[in-house]
From TrEMBL:
<dbReference type="Pfam" id="PF02782">
    <property type="entry name" value="FGGY_C"/>
</dbReference>
<dbReference type="InterPro" id="IPR043129">
    <property type="entry name" value="ATPase_NBD"/>
</dbReference>
<keyword id="KW-0418">Kinase</keyword>
<dbReference type="InterPro" id="IPR018485">
    <property type="entry name" value="FGGY_C"/>
</dbReference>
<dbReference type="InterPro" id="IPR000577">
    <property type="entry name" value="Carb_kinase_FGGY"/>
</dbReference>
<dbReference type="Pfam" id="PF00370">
    <property type="entry name" value="FGGY_N"/>
</dbReference>
<comment type="similarity">
    <text>Belongs to the FGGY kinase family.</text>
</comment>
<protein>
    <submittedName>
        <fullName>Erythritol kinase</fullName>
    </submittedName>
</protein>
<dbReference type="InterPro" id="IPR018484">
    <property type="entry name" value="FGGY_N"/>
</dbReference>
<keyword id="KW-0808">Transferase</keyword>
<dbReference type="GO" id="GO:0005975">
    <property type="term" value="P:carbohydrate metabolic process"/>
</dbReference>
<dbReference type="GO" id="GO:0016301">
    <property type="term" value="F:kinase activity"/>
</dbReference>
<feature type="domain" description="Carbohydrate kinase FGGY C-terminal">
    <location>
        <begin position="276"/>
        <end position="426"/>
    </location>
</feature>
<feature type="domain" description="Carbohydrate kinase FGGY N-terminal">
    <location>
        <begin position="1"/>
        <end position="205"/>
    </location>
</feature>
<dbReference type="InterPro" id="IPR050406">
    <property type="entry name" value="FGGY_Carb_Kinase"/>
</dbReference>
Length: 475
């Protein structure tokens, strides 16, 4: 059995695969988020405990020896650990908004743009740079007590293997300190963010990804394991997106658009980031929007509609949702791709007493689709498009999304991030796996020409409304 571990924001999963890529079993356990006045934090011990639990459940359920394991997980945020990988304080999530005033300052004084022009990283409040700077100003004792500021999977890797120090990989290091040309930390960026005296907290970058053997928690002792890449590039690997121009849309809590590229364009509006991969010269142009299925979850909760009712309701109202429109920017920290507006908020328009829950749900799905189209265009999509994530469980939404995007969708179901983690580990250990078989799409969804034409016009209207909303957010 090949094991992929995906430490998500709200769910921790362990998936087992056979040598041909067939999914044998999946174990999952939810983990909590503590939200308070813009702070979004996670209990590291709860997260690590969930990892150990799902691994124990998986290996008990599938009586096969573990050949190797690959680790991936949520990116960004700040996970402060001591020398053994144990928490110094609660982890600040990538969804955290406490550093928005610092980001406002850096947007105004040019620091934000300088960072992008040097690294290809458009900072947002929940990325390590602003969060570390905020902690340095407001909680310096935690930084003093820490040995490393890492990402989620790095903490898990150190705990599972008993490594003497924390390490990260080029993908997690990409935002915002990594120079994509040298694949080393850019000390000038550290200086610009006022963190030179905290430079020692940045974990060494293992290039290629680090490997080690487990100590025995969760997995049998001595199991070979590889650390990384984080969830976005892991999903790209798991969906077979490795050729320049091909793209991936992850319809999950975060709506992430990724396009494989060998280029590096640091001009244009600063947004998104370039994610370095294990292959030098190969990158992913990423436009990870803040909210994907979370927007639909909020609307479903507000209207009292269950997830299993969505497909039926989408069929009850026509394209355009009887004039209801949704700008789906629900995150408390605003938006980060394909533009950065920390104060942008969602807008719901065209609602009347005649509007139905079906109208609200279709309008939300259409709004998310328009946001996805915006991100994919900005990322430079020219080839095929794969889609994965929780949203793929709705066939009606996938048909709607194909129409809104105006292109076929290669829908890849299952634990795509965990698949990518295994493929990355196999490449690192020199284990030959049939990548095309592992990444074969479940189904291809074609757009319908008439609806696609309708949504092309709707997309133009969406961009116009967005421009107006961005202007209001700045005023």
């Amino acid at each position: 059995m090949y094991v992929g571990i995906d430490v998500g924001t709200s769910m921790v999963k362990a998936a087992g695969f056979d040598a041909g890529g067939r999914e044998l079993a999946v174990e999952a356990r939810p983990v909590g988020l503590a939200l308070h006045e813009g702070f979004v934090e996670q209990d590291m011990e709860e997260v690590y405990g969930a990892v150990v639990a799902v691994l124990e459940e998986l290996t008990a359920r599938v009586a096969e020896p573990v050949e190797l394991a690959g680790l991936t997980g949520q990116g960004d945020g700040v996970w402060l650990v001591d020398g053994q990988g144990r928490p110094v304080r609660a982890a600040a999530s990538w969804m955290d908004g406490r550093a928005h005033e610092l980001l406002d300052q850096w947007l105004a004084d040019g620091t934000f743009e300088t960072v992008f022009r040097r690294t290809g990283s458009a900072m947002f409040p929940g990325c390590p740079g602003p969060l570390l700077a905020w902690l340095d100003r407001n909680d310096p004792k935690s930084l003093d007590a820490a040995r490393a500021a890492v990402s989620c999977k790095d903490m898990v890797f150190q705990r599972l293997t008993g490594a003497s120090r924390a390490v990260t990989d080029v993908s997690d290091a990409s935002m915002p300190f990594l120079d994509p040309k040298t694949r080393l930390y850019d000390n000038r960026i550290v200086e610009l963010l006022g963190l030179t005296h905290r430079r020692g907290l940045l974990a060494p970058v293992s290039d290629p990804v680090a490997t080690a053997r487990t100590q025995g928690e969760g997995l049998p002792p001595g199991t070979r394991i590889a650390n990384g890449p984080y969830d976005l590039p892991a999903c790209a690997l798991g969906a077979g997106v490795t050729t320049a121009g091909d793209g991936l849309l992850i319809v999950g809590t975060c709506l992430a658009a990724l396009v494989a590229t060998t280029g590096l364009d640091l001009t244009g509006e600063p947004a998104g980031l370039y994610i370095s991969t294990d292959r030098p010269g190969h990158r992913l142009r990423a436009m990870p929007a803040m909210v994907g299925t979370a927007a639909l979850d909020w609307v479903l909760s507000t209207t009292g509609v269950r997830h299993d009712e969505v497909d039926d309701l989408l069929a009850r109202t026509p394209p355009g949702a009887h004039g209801v429109r949704v700008l789906p920017y629900f995150a408390p920290s605003g938006e980060r791709a394909p533009f950065v507006e920390p104060h942008l908020r969602a807008e719901l328009t065209g609602v009347s007493l005649e509007s139905t829950p079906a109208d609200l749900i279709r309008a939300t799905c259409e709004g998310i689709g328009y946001a996805a189209r915006h991100c994919l265009e900005a990322a430079g999509l020219t080839g095929s498009l794969a889609v994965c994530g929780g949203g793929t469980r709705s066939p009606a939404w996938m048909r709607l999304l194909a129409d809104v995007l105006g292109r076929p969708l290669r829908v890849v179901e299952g634990e795509v991030g965990a698949r990518g983690a295994v493929l990355a580990a196999a490449e690192r250990y020199g284990v030959a796996l049939d990548a095309p078989a592992w990444t074969r799409p479940t189904v291809i969804v074609e757009p319908e020409a008439g609806r696609a034409a309708f949504y092309t016009k709707g997309y133009e209207e969406h961009l116009a409304r967005l421009d107006e909303a961005r202007a209001r957010a700045r005023s």
